[in-house]
Fold this protein.
Amino acid sequence: MTKQPSILIIYTGGTIGMINDPETGSLAAFDFENISVKVPALKRFGYKLNTISFDKPIDSSNVNPAVWIKLAEIIKENHNKYDGFVILHGTDTMSYSASALSFMLENLHKPVIFTGSQLPIETIRTDGKENLITSIEIAAAKKNDKPVVPEVCIYFENRLYRGNRTRKYNAEHFDAFESPNYPALAKVGIHITYNYDAIHYPRQNKVINIKTNLDTNIGILKLFPGISEEFVTSVLSTKGLKAIVLETFGSGNAPLNKWFILQLKDAIEKKIVILNITQCNAGRVDQGRYETSAELNEIGVIGGGDLTTEAAITKLMFLFGQQLKLSEIKNYLQVSMAGEISFEVNY
Ligand code: ASP
């Protein structure tokens, strides 16, 4: 007899678990322990489903690295007891959390599927039920006794994505997420069709290694035409700053102003890492392709390829949390650690 799959559902908060509080008229969290009362179909899976709820469920705009550490620790404690994990999370910062966890759960062998919804699970037209049910099915899916998707993913509105490739791009539609530079790991219709070639499988001989040190001395500097010298100075002189995600134009281009290049050069000399990613929704940074990015190459700005902002910022927090040498951090930024960056192909 095959073993009944076991899934741990971790409820952090977000719209999916909210109900309209009749007294205040605003959305408040409900008790998720009783989720199978709200979604009776869950019982029909025949899986062992357990739930852990945050004591105080949060709107994901309040998520911070302490929440990621808490999630990593819950997974660490329960890793050997379950076949997979489903994390219910607000959509607003879900891509940041999924990116952070993808770095923190090194050599992951089990599915960790983030999901949530745009409408509370209580409402008639909710997208939450389908998102939850399919996420559980994906977290439990096995082939030849091995998990089909042993990655940190986001499942939302019929698509399964690698978490660190996603961004929330729509505040209104049910399909709130996109993965502009990497194909979906599964498409869901009548069947769940997995894209096996796109899924990452860890080496069997490596065991999971959960790392919970993060450093938040990181910032984002988004360029815009007319950006002032004073503004750039004040960002780069932030006390304790260790790295900046520089959001440039197009394929990694920045203004040719002397003061701008000198400021960046000065920051790099002070051992601040500058990671260049594009403001465009899709595509990649190709430093040196235009005159307007050649100088960035020369002064030691690191090209961030097709990283999303969410993956860039969390990768930097993770790397600076690991007590690595600066040269090691710079090397890691240019390789894929959890499938977050690709090198030649644009999807
Ligand atoms: N503000 C909510 C959150 O991110 C939105 C949602 O869950 O969709 O927690």
About this structure: The mean pLDDT is 93. The chain has two domains: 6-210, 218-332.
